[in-house]
Specification:
This protein is mainly α. The chain contains five helices and no strands.
């Protein structure tokens, strides 16, 4: 059973995950992204716009979702990290436009500055995580192994 091709492939992917996430850059991106999500969730109370309940709830939910996505809270399958990072990038972009999109007039200076800066940082960190995933996959392909999700002929 241990030599079954599927089990061997899963082990290779797990080894790739360990190599990529154990680098200082991978750990730094993950930690900064988690902290960004926590800040986004708490930002209405830190910045002082918790009276604008629609944006406060939006930031709380998006911040928690971002922190979970970027910390691997939905699973440690590394081949899913690329997709999770793009989902987190979408959350970062949503954070940028949220003051103008959510119900009610919540586009104050505090909310705009907070959400644009936090959303931009969140999107950049998510793109960095996605790039690190692709780099690990291409490094594996250069080493003579097939990368996940490639067609075999």
């Amino acid at each position: 059973m241990e030599t079954h091709p599927d089990i061997v492939e899963m082990r290779k992917r797990h080894e790739m995950a360990e190599r990529a996430t154990s680098t200082p850059q991978g750990q730094a991106v993950g930690t900064l992204a988690f902290l960004t999500g926590i800040y986004l969730a708490a930002s209405p109370w830190i910045t002082g716009f918790n009276g604008l309940s629609t944006l406060a709830v939006t930031n709380l939910l998006v911040g928690i979702a971002y922190a979970l996505l970027m910390s691997g809270g939905f699973g440690r399958a590394y081949e899913r990290t690329h997709s999770m990072a793009w989902g987190a990038c979408a959350l970062g972009l949503w954070t940028i436009v949220a003051p103008w999109v959510v119900a009610g007039d919540v586009s104050t200076t505090k909310t705009i500055v907070n959400n644009v800066i936090t959303g931009a940082i969140a999107a950049l960190l998510a793109m960095a995580a996605s790039a690190a995933t692709r780099a690990a996959e291409s490094g594996q392909a250069r080493a003579g192994r097939t990368a996940p999700y490639t067609q075999r002929g």
